[in-house]
Amino acid sequence: MKRLVSVFFLACMLLTDLNARCVVPDTIVRLFEKELSHFPQEKMSIHTDRGVYLAGERVWFRVHVVDALTMVQANASRYVYVELTAPTGSLIKRIKIRPDDKGSFGGYLDIDEEQPEGYYTIRAYTQFMRNIGEDYFVHKSVFISTPASQELKPHVVITEHGKDLKTRIYFSSETDNTDTIVPQQVLVFADGDPDGKGDLLKFRNGVAEYTFKEKEVNKSRTYLLQTIYNNKIADRYLSLPFDDSDFSVTFFPEGGTAVLSSPSKIAFKAIGSDGLSVDVEGEVKDEEGNVCTTFRSTHLGMGSFTLNCMPGKRYVAHCKTREGVEKQFELPVASEQAIAVNTLWRNDVLRVSLNRSPLNANRQDLTLVAQLRGLVLYAQPWDNSRSYIDFERDFFPAGIVHFILIDENRNILSERLVFSRQDNAVAAVTLNPDQSDYTPRQKVALDLTLKDVYGNPLEGNFSMSVVDKADVQPDTTSNIVSTLLLTSELKGYIEQPASYLKKDRKTEYNLDLLMMTQGWRRYNVPEILKGHTTETLPYPVELGDVVTGKAEGYFSALKDANISLIALNDSVIGTEVTKPNEEGTFRFDRLEYPENTKYIIQALKKKGSRNLFITLDSCRAFPQPDLKFLVPRQKLEVEHNYVQKMDMKYTLENGMRVYNLSEVLITARRKPEVATTSPYYSVSTSKVLTAEDVKKGNFISVLDMVRRLPGLTVSGTDEVKYRGGTPMVLLDNIPEENFDFDRLDVDNVSDMFFSPPATVGPVFGARAQAGAIVITTKKGFVEKNRLNKNMGIVTPLGYQQEVEFYSPVYDTKEKLESRSRDLRSTIYWNPSVVADAEGRAHVEFYAADSPVDYRVVVEGVCKNGVIISSSSSMLPE
Q: Which residues, other chains included, contact 185 with Cβ-Cβ below 8 Å and sequence gap of 6+?
């Protein structure tokens, strides 16, 4: 926490010249400064080596962690948690990474060879970031493909909407949409669970009909489609088609409320039932049917118009999509008492004015406040003799400026977001290869220089990816600039955030529409203005693993007792000793061990463990996975040559992929061997979580396992619900009343699944009206931390051990002439490249067998907070 606080004071020094230009009301400034000192915040951006992968590959990544105010690299938090989530929202993998010697958080995620095709989400956060909420965790979407899925293109058409969706399903060639292909077999898993029961499709004239029942469809509307074609199994996640005749339009008056009898600018945003933008046009009519104005969306369903709302009238927008679908929406009611903050960029000047109704004679005392990332840049009483205030563009740093109009009681009357675009926010990156062209397997020496807009060198740290342009398309939807300056400041889904970074008048207009239509949530400004600043934080800055508990003993057993901790990973790799206090509580902190490490905690005294007992506190559960990204309407077209090339590379390195099936046609997906002996298991129960799943998922508590069971929700710290009811618990097939999941150690769980009411209801009656969580233990129920009365075992999520990206070296004639093929798509990856005080960095690598036509992508931050972002060809085109 001290490091974050020091960064805050550094920011105040850097921006002192801004505050010196005006005399600010002390109270408001002090409140915001107090909030920043108590609650400094972190931001993140994820850089992966590329955006498309083949099942079986490794995803290399760097998480850039910065102070939210200054944008400089932040290292107060010791760990970053990174998760890979399936399109259904289920967690596939969670890892914990720690910084290297340069303070950078780099790591990797291995993709299983049998992972179905689809859009996956990578999410990253620190424990400290949980104080602001999970909406501000950083997310990145990646697409995972499979070789077998390249031969068939599925088509799913909705034929009837309702609670249940009736569809027609057919297939064509990926290269020819005209010919219909009937696979050997097609299975649909409506709930998206690859280990569940699939429904076999029957085709007639090349088309199959299938009904997705409402109760089977998951929240993400994602299902799994399995095809067998040319004796190859292809699994892919697909999203249910949405009703393209349904859309909604929301209207946002500038400043928050439309002003009566005065022209008001009103922005709008149109979205389809899938949550993505829809282009609309239309007319605004009054209640008498008179056309007051017309409008048309200009960018991703957004647009604006000006309307003079008259007293006693209501207005309706008549909207029509490109497909001709029409709907009507009422506009927000204008107010006579409203005072709205209006802004307008004119060249390099921002004009701020107030829009008041001529019917409003109240000239109350008002104050205009402008804050950026929690730092007050301007706070002055509004001079009613003036109609506007002008700010030069360089008055504000880069980012989202939040204008707030408050009354004498510090109530917010109006708010307006404005994006401040500054040329000095992003470094100029220059690539200087040592040659003008290269041959395959030749050594490449690449110099990079970082400079600011004035040509001065910049010192910084960045990640660097070099990819084959023939295989990998650049990510044009987002980058570190759009993440740190836009999406990390706004709540909700932002479509194509990188589209707002161009420097032209049209983009400026579109960016301002985004400011008017997107919600602001990062800082609780109303509470700060009222003096209710953050005093305590539930999630402190994490400096290491923490194990706490309580020791008890009869008579004077605790008097000379010690609490020891042994870290075990195949062998003993560390020990710690502490003493309990007078109440018997003890604490081990700043522990740091790699993944798969177990902690054995034991209470001992000189004469042994007699009369000693310990109880370990519960480990803090992880946040539930979420799906922030919406699936694009158009499926990503993966380069066929890339898939063939990477499949060959996988085969050369790992052996042949297994595709061939037996001669007997499978009529249902083969269920894995049932991993439980419980009599309450049936085909309608959920997937069985096994001890192997515990190891893969790095579960730290039994509640973490419960979160993985479909249909169950966990709120707070221990409340488990199924469709509003509380399921019973069957522990080793015996009912448990009011079971406390913290009593059971996760390492003692043999398997767990959820049995629905239809299965357990006939046995237990009303007690099982919300189903049952069935848990089987390895050795019978041994209450947590009672393996021995003085012992306890904890299996925390250890840090991922560092692995270096492998890049072949062709430094001898034998290696250069080797017949083994070099099929890399990611030619070079380095999560931590340092530019020195002269702004210079140097890297070396060897070219692959393909022609040297590479793209270099660098992302990072400089020591002064300037963002590093560049994507360009390595050689002049």
A: 200, 226, 227, 228, 665, 666, 667
